[in-house]
Structures are given as structure tokens and as C-alpha cells.
Amino acid sequence: MTSKEKRNVYAEVTDRIVAALEGGTVPWRRPWSETGGPRSLDNRPYRGINIFLLELMGYGDPRWGTFNAVKRHGGSVRKGEKGTRVILWKPVKREVPEGDERPAAYLLLRDYVVFNAEQCDGLPELETVEATSTPNELADEIVAEYTYGGPIVQYGKSGAYYDPHNDRVGMPARESFVSDDAHYSTLFHELVHSTGHETRLKRIEKALFGSDPYSREELVAEMGAAMLCGITGIDNQDQSAAYIEGWLKPLKNDVKLVIQAAAKAQKAVDLMIGTTFETETETTEATAPAAVA
User: Fold this and answer.
1) Same domain, yes or no, for 13 and 98?
2) Residues 78, 289, 228, CA angle at the centre, nearest 5°?
């Protein structure tokens, strides 16, 4: 690529996700490390697609930072270490002539390079915090707070589903799941669907099975469930060949799908756990993927 050629960040990110799938790894089904999801050296969690891009690298230390951030924290990147590209949405404002219907402000997708703490020297040792609650307790707390006054969850159904017309989540009997992890990851998936209800994020479209809108919503639910599993410590693995093959075609057909789905999943999770982020003049490296143009 010459300096004049325009890079397609969407395509580059999608290529990385597709390569992982073709290698037998589902990025949004990868269990989080015991030290938690990826975060900046300032202890701010990465968001959206950046979570999965960084988890794919397989480092045990969750801390990441740009070259300058590492230096600012008293460390240095070891010679020869290769950084990892993540994305950010940069707010852009422009003058719009009267009568021009183009927006005066929009978000521009950009990427930048970060390094894991294991690639650096001189950084403080990773501090570990002993958990005060079990993964099941954390999951129950999230579910209870979100469903209070929200969607109804009913057990004893023949399968797992979300009914937007009645705003209800149907689940099989809890004892029918092979593990607690399987139960919570399935419940999280359906509850993320419920965030798209017209009284919440207004995301759900009427769609036939296998259609593009259906695939988009399924990926939002998959990624949102994975984020919730990462927050609570629930194991969310599913690496079956059939499952992987099912995602390759839609991702290859739409290079924007994975980034946009991750951003919508992050917004759904924020709603479920009560997280809010004030608008900033420039999106930070850790909170970058919270919105989509």
C-alpha cells in the first residue's frame, strides 16, 4: 500500500476477526482471563470491538497502552515488539452551508497502535483484586437489576427465545442446562435481545431467519452476552465448526458488520448494567468504540 492509498479500517478489522474464525477461534466466545477484560494503563476498560481484538492476542496481563502512554507510566516498549491496532471514533465538526442537509458533526473511524504490558519494561506490577462475589452471584445481580420493571423471564419453556411483542424472555428449566455457565450465557444472549425493544434502544427489526437484519441482531446478542460473561467471569465457550461456519459468510459480505454489531452490543450492555458515558470532545482510547456513525 502506498502512502496515497486509503486504508479501509473496517475491512482490516473484519479480516482479523475472519482469520480467527477460520483458525477455529470465535473471538466473542473467548473466555476472559482471570485478571479481567482488557483495560488501559489508566485502568479504563476497552469497549466494543476493541475488547475482542485485544483478547485475541492471548496476553495474560489485561493492561494496554500506546507508546506514549507506556512512557507516561514510567515504562518502555521493548525493541522489536509489534503493536496491536485498535479503533476509535473521532468526533469531527464541519461548517455546513445553509440548505445543506449533511450533518454538521459526525464520527470518523480511525485506528491506532497499543502495546500489552507484557511487551514493556519498567511498568508497575499488575495488581490483582480478590473477588468478593462469585460469577453466579454477579450474574444474578445484573439480571435482577435489569429485569426489575423490565422484561419478564419465564422458565420451563421448550427453548430459549425473546418475544418482543410481549417483552418476555423464555428459557428452558434451569436444571436442563449442562452447567451454570451455559445457563447464564444463554440468558444473557436473550436479555441482550430485549434491550432492542421499542421502549429501550429501539434496535430490533422484523426479520426472517437468515436475513441480514436477523444476522446483525444475532451478532449483537452474541457479543453482548460475551461482554456480560467477561464482566461476571462466566465461561462462554462455543467453538463448534458449524457455529463458526455460520458466521463467516455474513462477516465476509459486510465489512462493517462486526464493528457496528460490537458497538451496539456495548450500548446494550451499558443499558443492562447502568453504565453511562458523557459525551467527550474527543473519544479516548479505552472508550473509543462506544458509538457508530
Assistant:
1) yes
2) 95
> Domain check: are 158 and 256 in the same one?
yes
CB 233 within 8 A of CB 138: yes
Cα 151 from Cα 273, distance rounded (Å):
14
Pairing between strand 84-93 and 105-116? antiparallel
Which pLDDT score is estimated for 272? 97
Beta bridge partners of 40: 64
Cell of 110: 480511525
Kind of pairing, strands 168-171 and 152-155?
parallel
One domain, residues 267 and 151: yes
Evaluate whether residue 59 is within a structural domain: yes
- Which helix (H) or strand (E) is 263 found in, with range? helix 257-273
Helix%, strand%, coil% for the chain, nearest 5: 40, 15, 45
Both 53 and 70 in a single domain?
yes
Q: Is 208 a residue whose pLDDT tops 80?
A: no
What is the DSSP secondary structure assignment for residue 20, as one 8-state letter? H
The residue from 83, 109, 128 where one domain ends is 128
Distance of CA 14 to the CA centre of its chain: 14
Q: Write out the residue range of the structural domain in which residue 78 sits.
A: 9-128
C-alpha 195/C-alpha 203 separation (Å) is: 8
Q: Against a cut of 0.90, is the pTM above it?
A: no
Name which of 29-38, 94-103, 185-194 the model is least confident about: 29-38
Residue 277: its pLDDT value, please? 56
Per-residue model confidence as pLDDT tens digits over 85-106: 999 988 888 887 887 777 777 7
Closest CA to 57 of 33, 90, 35: 33
Q: Report yes or no: 249 and 21 within 8 Å, Cβ to Cβ.
A: no
